[in-house]
Amino acid sequence: MTGGPSFNIIVAEKAKAVRLDAYVATQIPGVTRTQAQRLILAGQIRVDGAMRRPAYRIKNGDHITGVTPILPQPSLLPEPRDLDVVYEDETLIVLNKPQGLVVHPAPGHPTGTLVNALLFRYPEIQKVGDPARPGIVHRLDKDTSGLLLVARTSDAYQHLVRQFKSRQVVKCYLAVVCGAIESDEGSVSLPIGRHPRDRKRMSTVSPKGRAAQTEWRIRERFSAATLLEIALKTGRTHQIRVHCAMLGHPVAGDALYGKRRKRAKRIPLKADVLHAVKRQMLHSWRLRVIHPTALEPIQFEAPIPKDMQELIGSLRESMLQDKNTRDRKG
Predict the structure, then answer these.
(1) Could you tell me the residue ranges of all domains in the chain?
(2) Catalytic residue check, 307
(3) Rounded-to-integer distance, Cα 58 and Cα 62, Å
(4) N or C, where is the chain less crowded by C-beta within 10 Å?
(5) Could you confirm whether domain 77-166 is CATH 1.10.3720.10?
(6) pLDDT for position 41
């Protein structure tokens, strides 16, 4: 790492008592906690002008200064891989991303990503957008499946980015969540930002939370779960997963947010159904944008993936068995 722009951070009241290394990792984009520890130990990050240990607990009003490291960009290599292309023309590509595929290289995933495969098939995107993730206009989590938009030209990239920023893009997801939800529809408006203590998680209590709005309606009810149709009005990291967990109905199979189910209003889970889910049951189902050159709306839909279909089928079967059992007892 080499030195870049300097930074100055004044610790807010609600961030106090957090470890210095953990706090820095949440405040400086691209810096991991391990990297923050090294910078602190080297004296490149200081508190009120003094060196501190990485485990130092920050206090309200602490003045943290340092230099933002310039991290070397990994070289992006084209790699052959089958892609499920829903639509393509000279300006954009719409893909149906499978679950388990990382969108772009990052620490821990230097190769084998969607970007590597895109560069092999569409080498022209190399100079489009962010050099670290060329062509990528928006992202999906590794274990989220469904529609993803990629720009093939710089003009298309800028046009699509503006649409996302102005919230013109219509994004609709399907999610199987734990528990039986009583209302037919609803919305969540809670800010989302990096968790103050766990940088891998997002949270609605982050000191730097940004406005986030999620609307949902029930598509199908089961005994121990609910299939939701979810519309995103904003596009924060892990937004659906965080908001569903806050409702007490985490996305089925979500290993990061699914352990906190204190308020889940549900019939006890079927161990052989929901407990066997291996990834979060979240699918980017429908997407509508304005075409960058035709300037007309275009809409796409990705079929529900096999593992999600199988879960829904098992939940229906389980619900039918429960009904038959009640009928026999009645």
Answers:
(1) 2-69, 77-166, 169-330
(2) no
(3) 7
(4) C
(5) no
(6) 92
Backbone angle region of 253, left / alpha / beta, with phi > 0 → left and psi within -120 to 50 → alpha: left
Please give the structure tokens belonging to residue 200.
């891998």
- Residue tagged active-site, from 21, 48, 89, 141: 141
The class of domain 2-69 in CATH terms is alpha beta
Tell the residue number behind the tokens 């009005």, with chain if given: 233
pTM of the predicted model as reported, rounded to 2 decimal places: 0.76
CATH of 169-330, one of 1.20.140.10, 3.30.1490.190, 3.30.470.30, 3.30.2350.10: 3.30.2350.10
Render pLDDT for 199-224 as a digit per residue (tens, 0 to 9). 789 999 887 789 999 999 999 999 88
- Asked whether the beta carbons of 225 and 178 are under 8 A apart, the reply is yes
Find where tokens 């990096």 sit: 194
Distance between CA atoms of residues 110 and 125, nearest Å: 18
